[in-house]
Each structure stands twice: as structure tokens, then as C-alpha cells.
Amino acid sequence: MTLKKVILAGVLVASVGVFTACGSKNANTTNTTAANTTVNTTTAVNTTTNTAANTTANTTANTTAAAENTTTANTTANTTASAATDAGTEKQNLIAALDSVYNEAQPGTAGASLKAVICASTLLDWASKTTMTSDDIKATVKDWNTAHKDIEKKKAEDENMKAKFNDVNDACGELLTGSETDAKGLLDDAGVTGSGYPWSSAASDNVSVIMETLGIQ
């Protein structure tokens, strides 16, 4: 082989080497780019997934919180409304018991003591069950008393009302402090059935508030 051919062969080999090296470099660059693209795509997918998950979680949490707040608000409103209704009913029941005394008690007439027992039983039944405070009872009795007074007949009505409530107050005392035999005997004689006898100490206390407010005690 001549020197010229040797040189040409060497150049050819070098060229192939350079070409191969360039090809390898390009291949590596392509692989790196592809890998980076894959990583970035995966990161973007993960980010999107996490964002969606967080949004769903937040939405669920907010919805749950809103539902709980609505439920609490409704419960509070219903409780308030129920309490107001109960208070109104309690007041009406007291007025009905007072009206019973005013309309049914007839002091100084035949059978007055039996009618007083009937009215006393009605009043004690209410007094043993009510949840009204002493102040509420006083306010209701005062309003009721005022509504039953006629200015021109005030004195006469006052005396008449006191006589009625005096009789009923005496009957309450007999039913509360008398023996069981005596108390049941009074109720039977008056034809009272289904009463709350024996009444609690609260009944005695509440009746005392009514009588004191009317000036009976």
C-alpha cells in the first residue's frame, strides 16, 4: 500500500468516527429532550390531578360546612319558635284558669264551697305543670286583672273578685295541706275527676304568686 492510500484510509476512518460521535451526541440530545418532555408532562398531569383533588376536597368541605350551618340555623330558629309558642300557650292556660275562678266561683251561695274546690283543682293542675317564671306569672295576672276591671265599678268588682279568689285560695289550702282522705273526699264531693292530685310543691308556690299578685295573701 502506498503512503497516499494509507493517508486516505486514515482520513476515512476519522470521518466515520466524527460522524458516529455526532450521531451519538444527537441521539443523546434527543433522548434527553424526550426524557425531559416526559418528566414535564408527568409533572403537569400530577399538578392538574392534585389541583382537581384539592378543588373537590375544598368544595366538599365548604358544602358540608354550609349544610351544617344551615342545619344549625334551622334548629335554632325552630327551637326559638317552639319556645315562643310554648310561652304563649302557658299564658293562655293561666288566663283560662283565672277565667274559671272569675266565672265559676260564687261566694255566699249554696254550693259555693264545692265550686271553689273545682276552681282550685283547675288552678292547681295548671300550677303544677307550668314552666312560667314568677315574674311572668305576676305580669300575666296583672294584665288579666286590669282587663276585668270597669273604672265605674272598680271598687265593687275588686271586692267581688277578692271574695271569689279568697274562697278558691281556702280550697287550695285544704287540698294541699289536708290529709289524703280529706282531699280526695273534697274532690269526690265536687265531682272532680282526673285531677293532678297530689300536687307538687311547685303548685303551691305558683298559686301563692297568683294570690299575692291579686292582693289575697
Provide a descriptive summary of the structure in words:
The chain has 217 residues and is mainly α. Helix 1 (3-104) packs across helix 3 (134-147). Helices cover 84% and strands 0% of the residues. It has a domain at 84-213. It has helices at 3-104, 112-129, 134-147, 154-177, 180-190, 201-213.
Instruction: For the record, give the distance between the C-alpha atoms at the N and C termini, rounded to a whole number.
Output: 148 Å
Q: Helix and strand string, N-terminal first?
A: HHHHHH
- Count of helical segments? 6
Helix content: over 70%
Q: What's the pLDDT, averaged over the residues?
A: 75
Which spans have pLDDT < 50 for at least 5 consecutive residues? 3-39, 41-45
> What's the number of extended β-strand segments?
0
Largest sheet: none
Approximate strand percentage = under 5%
Cα-based radius of gyration, to the nearest Å: 48 Å
Q: Structural class of the secondary structure composition?
A: mainly alpha
> What does the overall shape look like?
elongated
